[in-house]
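Worked Example 4.2. Consider the chain below.
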Amino acid sequence: MSKQLGFLGEGFSCKCLLDKGYIILQRNYKTKFGEIDIIAKIADIVVFIEVKTRQTGGYGLPREAVDTRKQLNYYRLAQHFIQNNREYTDVSYRFDVIEVYVWEKKYKINHLENAF
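Applying the procedure from the previous section yields the following structure tokens:
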């Protein structure tokens, strides 16, 4: 997948989240361990979100790409974020996956809350 397609999917995801009342805290949070696509907040919950964008179904469902190894890495990345942003130490956390399907000039979003 191209970086451009991934960036497009993240943009669509942010729009969807904003429409649902989320506040986007950060996009593309990078550490030496990797990157969290989107960190958002809804009510008193900080949500760490992995976005998977696809143009075809040839690689299976996007959520299937978030395997155990990737999930464990997301936990580590989330801990890093929390340690460096103390204002979020006393809130709840959740890990979501957003699947974005893009074709021609259309897109469809499937937001999986508490995905792992």
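The two ends are 23 Å apart (CA to CA). Residues 3-19 form the longest helix (17 residues). Compare this with Example 4.1 before moving on.
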